[in-house]
Amino acid sequence: MANETPNKIPNVLRYLIAIVVVGIFAVVVFSFDHLLFYEVTTYFAAYDSYLSYITAGSNSIVGIVASYVIYRILASAVGSRAGNRRAEIGAVAIKRIMLAILFSFIALFITLTAFGISLTGVLAGSAIGGVVIGLALQTITTSVLSGLLVSVSKTLLPGDVVLMRLSSWGGMDLVVEILHVQTVFTEVRTQNNHMTRIPNTFLLNSVILTHLEGKDGFYYPLTVSLNSDVNGSRLQDIATSAINREFEGRHIQKPEITFLTKVVNTNTYVVTVHVDKFLNLNYYVNAVNRAFDKAYWQLKAAQPGSAAQLGKPRKRS
Predict the structure, then answer these.
(1) pLDDT tens-digit profile of 144-179?
(2) Percent of the chain at pLDDT exceeding 70
(3) What is the 3-state secondary structure (H, E, C) of the chain?
(4) What's the pTM?
(5) According to CATH, where is 3.30.300.100 located in the chain?
């Protein structure tokens, strides 16, 4: 059986052909526009003095249009390979922004060249002005750019639950629900149902973001640390039984409890809790902490020499 030949031109070849066609059209216009306008002004002598300006204007328009068309072709090519995952969508958005900036500079370069403006003077003036303006608007500009990156990269979306590690506050953890990503601030809801706004620069530069995800809610890793002066395994068993009874009574999925480490005088456990609704997080955290605290003091009271044991009356023989 003969091999079937594809009916469609490959995407890469189609994009390449489109770019070549646009480039050829622009070159043709650049080459013949002066001759065309010269012939026109021959019949309209009054406009002969404006020939250079008309030619420069037409060249700049053609350059801007060609730059925009090529940008659209390349942006479409970049987007055609994107999947549905958040990371891929964010990467495509960032690539499109970079392409837009690149072709904006190309269009500006063509326009300045068409009007005979020296780029050396422009660049020198832009450098000095940029430094002055940048110093004056540093905070606002950083916040706006951070908001732009957060928005287009899909790093944060409304409804996301995020664990923020605040490095500037000694590593304190904060769990928030993203409500709205704005230009300078991101509006969030805390686990205590407080609405607040966090600067986007703070989000990107000062914290470690961890998306908390899961089916029908999200999974929250709760770290519990207690003194190691009681049996760690026994403590875990007692706390697990109490937590399971508490959660079963409310028809909540049982958490996973891991004895993580024992360092010097501290036992550390990680309790992975399935949270169905964000505002129920405080209840789950409180239930787990109470169960571990109760188990600890139960074992502590049962140790020989404890206050509870010393207070018990002795049995008479």
Answers:
(1) 666 666 666 667 788 888 888 766 555 677 889 988
(2) 61
(3) CCCCCCCCCCHHHHHHHHHHHHHHHHHHHHHHHHHHHHHHHHHCHHHHHHHHHHHHHHHHHHHHHHHHHHHHHHHHHHHCCCCCCHHHHHHHHHHHHHHHHHHHHHHHHHHHHHCCCCHHHHHHHHHHHHHHHHHHCHHHHHHHHHHHHHHHCCCCCCCCEEEEEEHHHCCEEEEEEEEEECCCEEEEEECCCCEEEEEHHHHHHCEEEEECCECCEEEEEEEEEEECCCCHHHHHHHHHHHHHHHHHHCCCCCCEEEEEEEECCEEEEEEEEEECCHHHHHHHHHHHHHHHHHHHHHHHHHCCCCHHHHCCCCCCC
(4) 0.55
(5) 218-302
